[in-house]
Design goal:
The chain is an alpha+beta fold. The chain contains two helices and four strands, in the order E-E-E-H-E-H. The protein is globular, with a radius of gyration of 12 Å. The protein starts with a strand and ends with a helix. The mean pLDDT is about 90.
């Protein structure tokens, strides 16, 4: 399973958007004063790990993965 994803960080908002590479499945998460998907993000990443998923992104090594891992 391959997942393309991107993280965005702002002063008071974090977003994570992802899409399955082979199927029309999309995910969107937000952590902000208006919404807190932090638990859902952790559960989603654990689900991906359990399915042996590969996550790919534009600046994955230099930004997205370190931010998501933190």
């Amino acid at each position: 399973m391959r997942i393309a994803y991107d993280c965005e960080t702002y002063v008071n908002c974090f977003t994570l958007s992802a899409e399955h590479v082979d199927y029309p499945i999309k995910w969107a998460f937000e952590i902000s004063p208006w919404k807190d998907d932090s638990r859902a993000i952790v559960e989603w990443v654990q689900w991906l790990v359990g399915h042996g998923a590969q996550m790919v992104g534009f600046n994955n090594v230099g930004f997205d993965y370190p931010v998501l891992h933190t």
